[in-house]
Design a protein that fits this description.
By secondary structure, the protein is an alpha+beta fold. It contains seven helices and six strands. The strands form two sheets. A four-stranded mixed β-sheet has the order 5-4-3-6. The chain has a two-stranded antiparallel ribbon with strand order 1-2. A hairpin with a 6-residue loop joins strand 1 and strand 2. The chain starts with 8 loop residues before the first helix and ends with a helix.
């Protein structure tokens, strides 16, 4: 009987006992193998970053868990509790602007009150942003003719003023802050600055600002890196992140007070060594026991 052939009831009835038993055993083996295969496929589909070593970037959009608070229920109503010091706006003694709203006539008898001196004032204060606009500072370098040698000489511009027109350091710092810390894309960062200030910078300005910031914080990062190497206990981990559409790995080393991030194309020992902390770390390393950590320390 062919393996792909499905016997009818009549054909089964005509089989002898030995053949029928052999067929049943064969079918039982096939069913057991299929059950094991189905279970393996189910286990593979159920794996994500929460229950395996897979990075969060591999979870996709369909496997993101519903947000769930880790706080324990204590039977208290939400909001501020009794005795809690509240944080709210409070009137200031020296406001920036004062607007006086006069009483020109009595609402009861219509008597003219324009010349009557006010006895007191009721006050309400409004906290708001001032009108926002870019300030333009023109730098003028003097040009003089030397009376001795009759050569034209000019003053020196500040080192940071290199172009006929350019954006200043405060706007560049804000652009980098929005893009790097608040994770606004380049286009939206420029759009927001344009909406606020009426001048939309190019995306190249944001990239330049990020590069300037990177250079300025390099000494601080070097100190953090050095202190982490000598820490008695430090935590190490890595997580997937996309950079320019390509999968990279965010390596982190941290203590209670220090955190150092490194992005690298490799997840394993190459990326760990590039971070420059774990290979020379002499304390107790806390990690998820992935094999690359064991060979890097």
């Amino acid at each position: 009987m062919s393996q792909d052939h499905v016997p009818s009831a009549k054909e089964l009835a005509e089989l002898d006992q030995a053949t029928l038993i052999s067929l049943i055993l064969t079918l039982r083996e096939q069913v057991s193998a299929q059950v094991a295969l189905i279970q393996a496929l189910r286990d593979q589909l159920a794996k994500d970053s929460r229950n395996s070593g897979k990075p969060p970037s591999s979870d996709g959009l369909s496997k993101k868990p519903s947000p769930r608070s880790l706080r324990e229920r204590r039977g208290r109503a939400p909001g501020g509790q009794a005795g809690h010091a509240g944080h709210t706006l409070a009137q200031v003694a020296d406001p920036d602007h004062i607007e006086v709203h006069e009483v020109l006539a009595c609402p009861h008898c219509e008597c003219d009150l324009a010349a009557v001196v006010a006895q007191a004032y009721q006050t309400r204060q409004v906290f708001d942003l001032p009108p926002v606009r870019l300030e333009v500072t023109e730098h003028r370098a003097e040009v003089k003719r030397c009376p001795t040698c009759e050569q034209l000489v000019s003053g020196a511009f500040p080192a940071e003023v290199t172009q006929p027109v350019q954006y200043g350091p405060r706007l560049q710092a804000q652009a980098s802050y929005l893009n790097s810390y608040h994770l606004l894309p380049l286009a939206r960062t420029c759009e927001l600055l344009g909406d606020l200030y009426g001048q939309r910078p190019a995306e190249a300005l944001v990239l330049k600002a990020n590069a300037t910031l990177q250079a300025q914080v390099a000494p601080t990062l070097a100190l953090i890196q050095a202190q982490l190497r000598t820490a008695p206990v430090a935590h190490f981990d890595e997580s997937g992140v996309h950079v320019a559409g390509q999968l990279h790995w965010l390596h982190v080393a941290s203590t209670t007070h220090l955190t150092y991030y490194t992005i690298h194309a490799k997840r394993g020992q190459v990326g760990m060594q590039a971070a420059g902390i774990l290979p020379s770390f002499g304390g107790r390393a806390v990690h998820d026991h992935w094999h690359s950590y064991l060979g890097c320390v």
